[in-house]
Amino acid sequence: MASAQSSGGGTELGQFLRARRTQTRPDQVGLTVGPGLRRTPGLRREELATLAGMSIDYYVRMERGKETRPSPAVLDALARALHLDDAEHQHLRELAARAARYAPEPPPPPSRTVRPHLKLVLEALRPSPAYIISRSMDLLAWNPGGLALYAGLADWPATQRNLARYFFLHPTARTLFPDWDELVRGCVARLRSLAGTAPDAPDLTHLVGELLLKSPDFAKLWERYDVVGRKRIQKTFHHPQVGVLTLSGQSMNLEGTPGQRLGVYTAEPGTPDHDAMLLLDAIALEPAGRRDMKPEQQPHSRP
Fold first, then answer.
1. H helices within 100-149, ranges in order?
2. Does the bond joining 127 to the residue before it have cis omega, within 30 degrees of 0?
3. pLDDT tens-place string over residues 106-161
């Protein structure tokens, strides 16, 4: 089973290339497959080497982590041959830079301290659910709706509240999100991208190590080495307290706080989704017994 760490930058680079190669079908790159069974999923090493205009031996060395100084031209040729998008191409460059040990200075370690004025911002955003997360998706601060939106997350100790952990390990997550499969693919892609350039970061290695042990779904997606996930502007929640609501989401980096991001969800005023959002904000502040009432038992709930 894979881990969040690697033995070196060349190994991480080789793992990324192998994952992209085995997930690229010959017909996607203009190759005609002859009759008979192919033992190799995706492209063969020699096929990719030919498409990229390099020797098979050189490519094999790269994939095995033994070639750590590929030129920019080689990287660009591989990106074209594999039809990498811009984000994947940039990730390939970053892995190569780290393998060659001429990567730029690492960014400062992420802070878990949320500045007081940002907590005021979260409060000012009510009734829109909002929260601040770390680069490894730890929940650092939130307003009432921001925590209550992820049903059941408040039951965990504050130090365990992590969105990736919630998606894979909380029993409510699969029913909360009708598109859970797509959601978790994007989640793992984000963590994989971070692991490629900061493989030894403790905040990441601890989380990934836990999920690899506890979630077969996570382990399977981790092996794919996707680094780009689809982001939807709108997200639907099947919430046990307020019913079904579809909200528009926005995420942004916070200035002066490396690694911290603000996430906020909104709904058009006057719509049933906005009414549900108002209800969520209200019941999040109620005592536990009242908060656990079903939507039809709540005052001012939607018909």
1. 116-124, 144-148
2. yes
3. 555 677 889 999 999 999 999 999 999 999 999 999 999 999 999 999 999 999 99
d(CA 257, CA 193): 20
Question: How far is the C-alpha of 153 from the C-alpha of 36, rounded, in Å?
Answer: 51
Residue 300 DSSP one-character state: T
Is residue 134 within 8 A of residue 153, CB to CB? The reply is: no
Question: In whole angstroms, what is the distance from residue 103 CA to residue 99 CA?
Answer: 8
188 close to 221: Cβ distance less than 8 angstroms: yes
Contacts of 284 (CB under 8 A, 6+ apart): 144, 145, 147, 148, 291
H or E stretch at 250: strand 243-253
Cα 102 to Cα 10, 107, 192, 244, distances in angstroms:
13, 14, 21, 50
CA distances from 112 to 8, 20, 164 (A): 28, 34, 17
Task: Find out whether 207 and 162 touch, Cβ atoms under 8 Å.
Answer: yes
Which bin fits 13, alpha (ψ -120 to 50), beta or left (φ > 0)?
alpha
For 234, list phi and psi in degrees, rounded to 5: -110, 145
State which amino acid sits at residue 230: R
